[in-house]
Amino acid sequence: MTSAAGRVRGRVVRLVPLAGIALALGLSADGEAGPAASRAAVDQTFADAVGDSTGRLDITSVRVSSQGDRLDVRVTTREQTINIIEAIFITIDTNFDGRSDFGFLFRGGGSGTLWYLRYPTSQPSYDPAPATYGGTSGQDFGITFNLRLGPLGNPEKIKLFAGTKESTASGRWDSAPNSGWFDYVIRQATPPQQPPTTKRSQDFVARGGTMDPDPPQAGRPVVVRTRFVFRASGRTVQTGRLTCSGTVGSQRIPGSGPSLNSRRHACEFQLPASAAGKLFAGRVSLAVGGRTRSVRMSKTVISTRFLRLKDIRTQPIVPSADKRFAATFAVELVRGQTAVPVSTGEVDCRATAGGKRVSVYFNGFFRESGSPRATCSWNRIPASARGSTFVGTVTVRSGGLTATETIRYRVR
């Protein structure tokens, strides 16, 4: 991480401003300026034209509200249901610079999984979001994205847009707004300030914490971020002494580049190549006026080489009682920032419906539309399972690596 003063090595530095850099890829907006930001920081509804969708799902409005650590984005559609091959997504610019920082997507079918995408990325595809980011609710005439502001970096204002699409296609059906972004103020931005003079107003706390990448990867840098604010005013602390400390297993590793931009305090740690399978813990501490506050983030380090299952397709769309059911996945071998399709390996399939085991009649790889896919096909689901939950677990082993995905659907 680089500050205005250049790269800083060591564990203690004075805070200096840091300019944020973002890169818009994939589903980012076209960069046109949106409407002027409203000062209504709690609840705001943005309307969208009806009948302008090129597909089935037509957005009618986007309602955004924030309270405490919550950011709720309600995308309302003209249609009541979201089919399993359909999706509703939102893209958020947390730096307010017109470039995408986060994307969140909900796929129909009732599984309730929140999918996400972090920018910048060379692979614009969605993955299941860690639970720290939040979830979804209200799957009726649209969907509500219930997000947490901490993992988003505690922005004071955001730009966002919403869209609908087929879950496996890149093109959109409908966008809200039709071009540009909606602007939403979470809390009014405040200028930097010197520490207050009274003891009570000098007290400060950490607001949220994130780790990037999450989980951390062996042999690569990982950044731990937080935002320290004065308890009384809620303003960002921009003075004091920031320190970094980290461990991998029992080994201490130094933090570098302690820095501050207008929203976050951050430390970067370089993980050794031997860190895979060990617990990484990174701490960001700030000392101001005799007080010290810290945020500690920890997670088991993974290898930079791993398998990933993505792009689920099912036949039929949802499982039906007394009928067979199949699910296929694309399998990728991820090395750093690149992903390569996998076409060979062992595919293990297990499932229950209504608590009863469903047997498998085919498992393995096959080509669908010319692309290799891992396949699990189950025998007929018991008639007694109608209305219960089908739970399937797909495990792929290839090249000494393993990836697992669990799917849940209500049996009709």
User: What is the terminal separation in angstroms?
Assistant: 52 Å
User: How many domain modules?
Assistant: 3
Q: What's the alpha carbon Rg, rounded to whole Å?
A: 23 Å
> Could you tell me the strand content as a percent range?
over 45%
Low-confidence stretches: 1-41
Number of helices: 1
Q: What's the CATH first level of the largest domain?
A: Mainly Beta
Major sheet summary line: 8 strands, antiparallel
**Could you estimate the helical fraction of the residues in percent?**
under 10%
Give the overall shape, derived from the CA principal axes: globular
Topology order in helix (H) and strand (E) letters:
EEEEEEEEEEEEEHEEEEEEEEEEEEEEEE
* Total strands: 29
Class from helix and strand fractions: mainly beta
Please state the average pLDDT score. 81
CATH fold-level name of the largest domain: Immunoglobulin-like
CATH architect. name of the largest domain: Sandwich
Short description:
With about 400 residues, the chain is mainly beta. The chain is built from 1 helix and 29 strands.
Could you walk me through the main structural features you see in this protein, from its secondary elements to its overall organization?
- The protein has one helix spanning 199-202; strands at residues 12-14, 43-47, 59-67, 70-77, 86-93, 102-107, 114-118, 127-128, 134-137, 142-148, 157-166, 174-176, 182-185, 204-212, 221-230, 241-248, 251-260, 265-270, 279-288, 291-300, 305-315, 325-335, 338-341, 346-353, 356-357, 360-368, 371-378, 389-398, 401-410.
- By secondary structure, the protein is mostly beta strands.
- It folds into 3 domains: 12-16 and 191-300, Immunoglobulins (Immunoglobulin-like, Sandwich); 43-185, Immunoglobulin-like; 305-410, Immunoglobulin-like.
- Strands 1, 14, 15, 16, 17, 18, 19 and 20 form an 8-stranded antiparallel sheet that branches. Strands 5, 6, 7, 8, 11, 12 and 13 form a 7-stranded antiparallel sheet that branches. A 5-stranded antiparallel sheet has the order 2-3-4-10-9, with no helix packed on it.
- The radius of gyration is 23 Å and the shape is globular.
- Residues 1-41 have low confidence and may be disordered.
